[in-house]
Structures are given as structure tokens and as C-alpha cells.
Amino acid sequence: MSKRLFDIGASALGLILLAPLLLLATLWIKLDSPGPALFRQTRVGRFGQPFTIHKFRTMRVEPGAAITVGADPRITRSGALLRATKLDELPQLWDVLRGAMSLVGPRPELPRYVELYPTELRNQVLAVRPGITDPASLAFSHEAELLAAAKDPEREYREVILPAKLKLSAGYAARASLATDLKLILQTLSRVLHG
């Protein structure tokens, strides 16, 4: 079975089985704070093509930094739980189904961060579809806390965290296989279920 066929089958099944949970999350977000239930943002996808990523909105609709640092005051009550359980990522199953993403692949970045990628690594990472999870996502699952401890969170992300994530993502892209994907999916589910 090809990676794309697996993505289509798994994302479609996930959207069907999780439909009640997706509906409940949508209603809770709408009741918790004004604004849309979904957060949409432009990210860089395969071959450098921009696409719109979908997540459940976890913050109040107001201006702020692009990165989330620790207990960001913009995070809503519903958003805190959605982030803690990673349920805010579930709408990306739609992005997988429509072909913009994969279940497993390098996490898609904002265009301004992709501009910082070294050319060789950029080409390698962007040669595959971005994913909901990957080795870098697991290694930096507490990224917000790491940034909260930094004197300059933006600089910490650009100079320390981003290069480390990029190397992990490039390593995945070089050795990607369905077996690797299944292993990473199981590791991600275990991490979500056990905290």
C-alpha cells in the first residue's frame, strides 16, 4: 500500500469516527470565546508550495506573536485542554485527505521560517508532504515550555529549536517508509494518551 493511499484511508476513517468529537469541540470553542472555531494559517508545503493549514482555534482572536510561549494569556479555556490533548490538530485530517499534508511528515512551517532553511536541507525536507506528526514533533512536544524559559523566545526558536527540528525532519525525509510512518503514529498516539 502506498503512503498516499494509507493517508487517504486513515484520514477519511478518522474524520468519520471522530465526527462527534469534532462537533463537540467546535461547539465548545464557539461558546467559550468569540470568533471562528477553526484557525487557518498559510504554511509552506511540498516543493515549497504555500497551503492553508487548519486547526481548532485555541486563542482569543487578537494580535500577538507568531510563536506560543508557555502559558500564553491569549489561550482560551477550551484551547488549554485542546492543546494539552493535541486535539487542536484534528482538523488537519482534512488537510491530509485533500492532499496538502500527510499523517506523517515534517511539520509545515511559516514562510518566514522556511526562508532560514539552508538550501540542501530545504530541498530535502520540502521534497515530501508535510505531516501532522514526525520525529521533531515528538522530540519538541514541550516546545512552548522551552521557549518560555528562554530570555528571547523568538531568537531561541530561530537559532536553536528550528535547526534541531530541521535536522530531524531531514533525517525522516531521507528514510521515510510506511513502516516508519506506522511506528511514528503509534509513538504519537502513545504520547497523547499517556501525556
UniProtKB/TrEMBL annotation:
InterPro entries: Bact_transf (IPR003362)
Domain Bacterial sugar transferase, residue spans: 3-193
Keywords for this protein: Transferase
Tagged with keyword Chloroplast: no
Highest taxon of source: Bacteria
A single GO molecular function term of this UniProt record: phosphotransferase activity, for other substituted phosphate groups
Record carries keyword Transcription: no
Family (UniProt): Belongs to the bacterial sugar transferase family.
Protein's UniProt name: Lipopolysaccharide/colanic/teichoic acid biosynthesis glycosyltransferase
UniProt organism field: Roseateles saccharophilus
Phylogenetic placement of the source organism: Bacteria, Pseudomonadati, Pseudomonadota, Betaproteobacteria, Burkholderiales
